[in-house]
Amino acid sequence: MKAGIVKKIMAFAAATTIAISMVGCGSGAADKKQNSLEAIKAKGKLVIGTSADYPPYEFHKEIDGKDQIVGFDIEIAKQFAKDLGVELEIKDMAFDGLLVALQSDKIDMVFSGMTPTDERKQNADFSDLYYTATHRFVLRSGDEASITKMEDLKGKKIGVQKGSIQERIAQENFDKDSIKSLDKVTDLILDLKNNKVDAVLIELPVAEINVQKNEGIAIAKNLEVKDPDGGTAIAMKKNSPELLAEVNKTIKKLKDEDKIKQLVTDANKLVD
Ligand code: ARG
Predict the structure, then answer these.
(1) What's the whole-model pTM score?
(2) Fewer CB atoms near the end CB (10 Å): N or C, the chain?
(3) How much of the chain, in percent, has pLDDT values that exceed 90?
(4) Using a 6 Å CB cutoff, which residues line ligand 1?
(5) Separation of CA 6 and ligand 1 centre (Å)
(6) Rounded average pLDDT over 113-129
(7) Do 142 and 216 reside in the same domain of the chain?
(8) Which superkingdom does the taxonomy of this entry point to (predicted)?
C-alpha cells in the first residue's frame, strides 16, 4: 500500500517534471516563434494564392498538354521564390477567398492583382505597388455607341468579381439589384456574351485581352473609372515585416531593371 502511494507520487512527480519541461520548451519556442519569412524558408516552399482568371496578371494556359497557371504576377512570384531559394506552389481559388486563406495559413502570400485598400490593409500587409491600371467597362459590341457615361449604365446589369474593388465601385454607383457578383472573371465574360449581364467592370489590361480573345465584346469608350486606390501589390499576413522587406527587395530589383513591363508584354503574348 505504502509502496503503491510512493510509486504514484513518483509517477506524479515525473509527469510534473515532464510537463514543466514541456511548458518550458513551449514558451522558449514561442519566444523564438518563426516569422513568416523563416517559416517559408524552413519548409522550403512558398505557397501563393491567386485567382487565375485575370490575364495578363494570372491565367490558365495549356503548355505541353498540361494545364498551367501563368502571367506576370506568377513570374514575379517565381522570381521571389528563386530569390529565397525555395520552391513555388500555386493555389488557384476564388478571389474573394484569398485573404481568408491567408488568415488561416493555407497560403503564405497573395499574388492576384490585388489592390491594397485601407480596408484590406487592416488584415494584411502589402508590398510596394508594382503595377497600376485603370478600370474599364467591357460591353457587347455595338453598345459602345449608346453607353458612354455612367448614367447610360443605369438600369443595365453590371457584372463584377466578388470581393473586388470593382464590386465596391459598382455598389457606389448602381442599385444593388443591378449588380451581379461572380467568383471568376471568366464567367463574367461568358455572362456578357450570353446577355446575362450588360457590362463587366475590370482592369484595363484584362479588358483589352478579353476583347482581343473573344468576339462580340468591346471596351466602353470615354468611360474610365477613376480610382484613387488603384494599383497592385502582394499581400501577406499582417505583421510580417521580414517577409515584407524581402519581397520589396525583389520588386525593387525588377523595377530597377525595368523588368515588370517586359513581364507584362510576355504574359500578353502567352494568351491564346
Ligand atoms: N484589383 C482588383 C482588386 O484588388 C481586382 C483584382 C482581381 N484579380 C484577379 N486575379 N481576379 O480588387
Answers:
(1) 0.88
(2) N
(3) 84
(4) 51, 53-54, 57-58, 95, 112-115, 161, 164-165, 185, 203
(5) 67
(6) 97
(7) yes
(8) Bacteria
